[in-house]
Specification:
With 262 residues, this protein is mainly alpha-helical. Helix content is 71%, strand content 0%. It has 2 domains: 3-120, no CATH class; 132-261, no CATH class. The protein is built from 14 helices and no strands.
């Protein structure tokens, strides 16, 4: 057992009435050093109630400890960094996987720091803002990917856009969330994707897409009409509004499909 924990338990048993025990605790604590990575790990990335840092922050015997103030100062510096630059994507992803117990530990530690520093909001508000920003970027990536796979199978530069999305995916695993930008080439797709998202809510449209995709996979078209794949085969996705042409032809086929249902 850690000698410091042993001293803490003795101090609790005698209700802090021994100056000798208290002096030994302070002497031991003054020999402990933590780096920023250790503090971040124990207070946010892998929080537990059994760490030395947790004990130093909340055990009464450390109220006047110099080490407690050092830890508070380092935690406050981390908070200020998060305010200025934001969280890393890996930290937000880890937060999403936390158990309720782990979140309660984070809340206790960081809300204590917030109260000490007289912050105007609690730590969960800061986390939630970053989480929403990250979720929005993830949704954009997923929507664009779906659009490319559904409507642009044969565009010669489709791979270029998939690579841009792949780079975005990598950044959404580890980079600072605020630093992750949507490439301009990808942004150009968003207005069209928004329209398609509304259209895809129709059950008939979903059925139509499923059938056309199945025909495409089987490489056995049932009509000699011009199809979207013919329109952009060998064309850039964004040249001459080709994606809009694709959707027009898709929609024409969709109307034909509806008439066939009647």
């Amino acid at each position: 057992e850690n000698p410091l924990y042993h001293l803490i338990n003795i101090d609790k048993q005698i209700q802090g009435k021994s100056k000798l025990i208290n002096d030994l605790i302070q002497l031991t604590a003054n020999k402990i050093q933590f780096n920023v990575d250790e503090i971040l790990r124990d207070t946010f990335e892998r929080p537990t109630r059994t760490t030395c840092i947790y004990a130093i922050l909340f055990e009464d015997c450390f109220k006047s400890s110099r080490l407690r103030q050092i830890i508070i100062d380092q935690l406050l510096a981390l908070w200020n960094t998060w305010e200025e630059k934001g969280f890393r994507a890996s930290q937000i992803l880890g937060w999403k996987k936390f158990s309720n117990e782990e979140r309660q530990i984070v809340y206790r530690i960081w809300n204590y720091i917030g109260e000490t520093a007289k912050k105007q909001y609690q730590i969960d508000a800061l986390i939630d803002r970053q989480r929403r920003e990250m979720d929005e970027k993830i949704q954009i990536k997923e929507r664009i990917t779906k659009c490319l796979d559904t409507y642009c199978q044969n565009a010669f530069d489709k791979q270029l856009y998939l690579e841009l999305l792949s780079e975005m995916e990598t950044k959404l695993q580890s980079d600072i969330v605020r630093s992750i930008t949507i490439p301009n080439q990808i942004k150009l797709f968003l207005p069209l994707v928004d329209r398609l998202t509304s259209l895809e809510k129709l059950n008939a449209w979903e059925t139509f897409l499923a059938q056309t995709q199945k025909r495409s996979q089987n490489n056995s078209p049932t009509t000699t009409d011009i199809h979207p794949s013919d329109i952009i085969d060998g064309e850039s996705l964004l040249s001459d509004n080709s994606m809009y042409i694709v959707v027009v032809y898709k929609f024409i086929d969709f109307i034909k499909y509806l008439f066939c249902l009647k």
